[in-house]
Amino acid sequence: MATVAVDDVIADEETGTGGAREGIGGSRPFAWLLIITGAAGLLAAWVITLDKFKLLEDPSFTPGCSLNPVVSCGNIMKSEQASVFGFPNPMLGLVTYSMVIAIGVGLLAGARYQRWYWLGLNAGTLFGAGFCMWLMYQSLYNIGSLCLWCSLAWAATIVMFCYVTVHNVRHRLVKVPEGLRSGLLEFHWMPPVLWIGIIGMLILTRWWDFWTS
User: Fold this and answer.
1) Where is the Vitamin K epoxide reductase domain (predicted)?
2) Do residues 132 and 154 touch, judged by C-beta distance below 8 A?
3) Nearest 5°: CA angle at 60, between 57 and 65?
4) Number of CB atoms found within 10 A of residue 161's CB
């Protein structure tokens, strides 16, 4: 009965009063998830941006999150990878995470968005997750330091991407085999948990001697 009810809601949102012309909205939990993950990413980007400005003013400045030789935000900020697009990476986060928060607030207010908008959000969060994974690799294996605020942004972006994808699959905006769709909707928590868990294991093994010393 529960499955039928969910399918009925989805059908109403796709073809009924909430059809393609009016767009597709999102549940309150999903809206809050966008707001919370967006706020977490925005907080991380804001703190890193402020510390970057202080570092530019005073090269001897030590960010508050530089705790030891491994957890050292300063080493990350001084690296070439910290300004891939010609400006500090967190400045990109200031814009994009703010947009995600705005979308979440809009959903709480009853906003409904067209298919192209949801697909655009999915593409944007995919880029964000991919960029975070590239930065994670650079941090662990090239720079050799870990930034706690960066880690917060990674986790927020991963959760954001996973649940935007689940939302789009649920509303059949992204077409996948029905068996995969059912499994993803039932075990929606598994991809972000496994993803973040793997990152945690990589961090643990990368500096195993340091953590255990």
Assistant:
1) 27-168
2) yes
3) 95
4) 24
Quote the strand ranges of 58-137, DSSP E: none
Instruction: Divide the 213 residues of the chain into consecutive groups of 10 and give the mean pLDDT of each group.
Output: 37 41 90 98 96 90 88 91 92 97 97 97 98 96 94 97 97 95 95 97 94 87
| Domain locations in the chain as residue ranges | 22-212
pTM for the model: 0.88
C-alpha–C-alpha distance, residues 190 and 154, integer Å: 17
* Encoded amino acid at 206, one letter: R
Residue 132 CA, distance from chain mean position: 8
Question: 22-212 has which CATH code?
Answer: 1.20.1440.130
- Other CB atoms within 10 Å distance of the CB of residue 18: 18
